[in-house]
Amino acid sequence: MNIFASLYIVVDGMFVANLAGKSEFAAVTLIFPILNILGTIGYMFGVGGNALVAKTLGENDRQKANRLFSLIVLASSVVGFLLMVLGYVFMPRIASLLGAEGKLLENSVLYGRIFILALPAWIWVYEFQLFFIAAEKPHLGLAVTVFTGLCNIALDALFMIGFKWGLAGAAAASAITQIVGGVFPLIYFSRKNDSILRLVKPAWDARSLVKCCVNGSSEFMEEAAASFVGIFYNVQLLKYAGEDGVVIYGLLMYVSLIFSAIFVGYSNGIGPVISYNYGSRNHEELKNLRKRSLKIIAITSVAMFVLSQLLARPFSALFLRDGGKLLADAVHAFRIFSFAYLFTGMAVFGSAFFTALNNGQVSALIAFLRTFVFELGAVLLLPLLLGVDGIWSSVVFAEFMAAVTGTVFIIALQKRYHY
Hints:
The chain is built from 17 helices and no strands. By secondary structure, it is mostly helical. It is globular, with a radius of gyration of 21 Å. The mean pLDDT is 91.
């Protein structure tokens, strides 16, 4: 699900880069981190709620699990509609604070205001992707993700090639896609179905709702902080490399979505299994899950690094149709950036592992250090020593340090959780 969801976002970026233009692509790169911060609130509710619901199912209390599931969806919906209104009203101010001026400001506001109309549905997409797993319907979740991805590609082609709506067409295609992807599971879980979860009349449970948000805060922080740090990347790149630097960064982020989606998808998929076995006190299976997960992540990390080095030029060319110096600079940046894939898997899994064990404090600490300390510190300091290359190296340093931190916590808390 994560790979396909990332893939159609990447295709959307390719349409903008190749059909709308370089400046429009820079506008999307500039404003998208803000949109992503708002959207990943659904990730917080989904990850935290998924761990809580799966643990409750492991305790064999299905009725309570459904009430918790329904309360979490209701709370996330209220938050989504509130942020949609605020985001639409303040979008010009937000884009201006990011450093956008002139045409870049105009394009950023245009894309942002259209896209944010689908924010509540985007939040549903994030959380239902995870609840499909807890509901023992991962294949249905995958089918929904693939279908919405194909819708996005078709609508991009229709609006940008057929109707020639340009950047507005790309934003409209993405917004409609989020609505399709969010409303379908909402209807599915609202009606009688053959999964183990169903939306029912929720019962107010402030303690569980707070537990859900605290437990999911690490993953939200990880995703939101990555977007927050992305804002600083854009500011630094406008300073050191101008609009072309922002274009290259956008390219790296789109490609990185696919690579990191493999690790995020695995961590999300294994999370409910870990939570279930933790709730049922099956310590032997917890140990097996931990060992096998670390082996899978290690092998995949090396494979992804090698692949990214080999395909740096083809990937860059997908977004830069004119080639020339900009393409050469992009390939150079890509090859530095790709060293991060050696450590991303462990950085992601370390945080997700403790979320699944319902230890939101450790998970949040790993996520906080990864972004706000390691990456933010690196993107502010390394350019002073290495120039633009320091910006591309920042994520490598951050992922390495986060992987080390996650490993230390897994070793230190092994006896406590019996894995």
